[in-house]
Structures are given as C-alpha cells and as structure tokens.
Amino acid sequence: MKPIIAANWKMNLTKSDASNLIGHINHAMNDIANIELILGPSHCYLDLAATHLKRGVIAAQNIAEFSGGAYTGEISAQMAKSCGAKYALLGHSERRHVFHETNEMIQKKLVLCNDNGLIPILCVGETLEQRNSGQLKTVINDQLDVLKNSAQVYFVAYEPVWAIGTGETATPELAEEVHAHIRSVVGDGVPILYGGSVNASNIKGLLSMPNIDGALIGGASLKSDEFSDILKISAALERKKS
Ligand code: PEP
C-alpha cells in the first residue's frame, strides 16, 4: 500500500494562499509516484482544490448531520461531493471538543457519507486526562462503535487530542500500540492514519510502524517546504518497502 498523506488545512488561508500552496504541492508531486495524497481545504476552496490539484484527491473537513434543507451555514455530503470531494473528515477532535459533536451525530454523518459516495475518515483519539486515567481503549472503542452498521468503506485516523497542534507527537511506539488496537477492531483492509504534530522530522519513524498506513497533517501541511519534504520522505519510504 502506498503511504497516505492527508492534509487538513483547517480554517486557514485566503483563496490566493490556497491557490499558491496547491501550486507548490503540484510541483512537489511531479517527482513523486508513490503517495496517495488527500487534501482537506476549507469548504469554500473545495472546488478550487478539486480543479487545480493535479495528483491527489480532495476531502471535506466536515459535513452536516442532515441531508439538506434549512440549516444555515452547513454543508451537506451531497454538496461536498458535487464540489469535488471524495473523502470527508468526520469527528475531528476540534469538531468534538469545540463544536460539541457527539458519537451519535458522527454516526449520522457516516451514513450520509455512504449514501452520497464520500469515503469517511473517522478521527478518534483520547485526551491526556482520559489516557492518564486508564480510559484510552474505552474511549477509542466508543468512538469506533459508530462504524457498526453505518459505514461500508472508511478510513480511521488516530489523533490523540494531546498531540494535535501542540508540537507534542506520540512516539512511533506509542502510536503503534493504539493503531494495533484499532486494527484489531476494524480489520486488515482499513487504512489507519496517525495525526498529531506530524512534521518532516518525525514522519519517517511513524510511517515505519506496521499499522500506521499514513498521516493526517494539520500545521505542517500549511508550510510548503515542510509539506514537500514530508511527501518526499514518505515516498522514499514506500520505495524501500517495495
Ligand atoms: C489535525 O488537524 O488533524 C492535526 C493533526 O493537526 P496538527 O498536525 O497541527 O497537530
């Protein structure tokens, strides 16, 4: 399997910044054959990214839990799909913690993804408090439970909340421990990405772990040089494996 590198731009970049960054990514991808690239721009740039990204696919950062109608400010799975998204991030920790998304809401979104031909990337992860109080597996299992009967094809992203945007990455061994647990729940065919302060210095160690199939990258995906390095390092790793 090629390493999967997914970028989550969050609520960043103007339209011209987004356009420039896509240009840099296209340039970097010219020399790279062995990466599955997924780009998650803000909703208002989905169309732009889908039109201009040459080698990669697009993810919406979120979709509404409703199929359509009077929900001001929301974007439906069908709308994201029609603007070029192939994937949708669901249950990102910022959605769970800032916008109080529950597993029930996420389950509805999973169904809508399936109904509209979007592949969900379900984000799961524990807070430091949950980890320190021995609740790690319970939290992860509860978050994975939404997949039962609601998703046919999906990815999982393990993103420990304490590692997102903090500069504190899980060590490859610590991440692998949780990935192996997730693997035991979801099975072999499901790609499992790691996310949480991934950068050009730690990507190699993380992707070398047997159950880490790729990375979901926030902050470092906004820096053109660093993101290009991440793509190159990941591609070189895959070549070594094959
Ligand atoms: C993310 O937003 O999914 C993420 C992992 O962010 P960062 O890489 O900045 O920690």
- Whole-number count of domains: 1
Helix content: 40-55%
Mean pLDDT: 95
Let me know the largest β-sheet.
8 strands, parallel, barrel
Query: What is the CATH C-level name?
Result: Alpha Beta
Report Rg. Answer: 17 Å
Q: Give the helix/strand class.
A: alpha/beta
Superfamily at the CATH H level? Aldolase class I
% residues in beta strands: 15-25%
Strand order of the largest sheet: 1-2-3-4-5-6-7-8
How many strands in all? 8
Small molecules (ligands, ions, cofactors) in the structure: phosphoenolpyruvate
Oligomeric state of shown chains: single chain
The residue ranges in which pLDDT falls below 50 over 5 or more consecutive positions are: none
CATH architecture grouping: Alpha-Beta Barrel
Helices, by number, come to 10
Q: Terminal Cα separation, in Å?
A: 9 Å
The gross shape turns out to be: globular
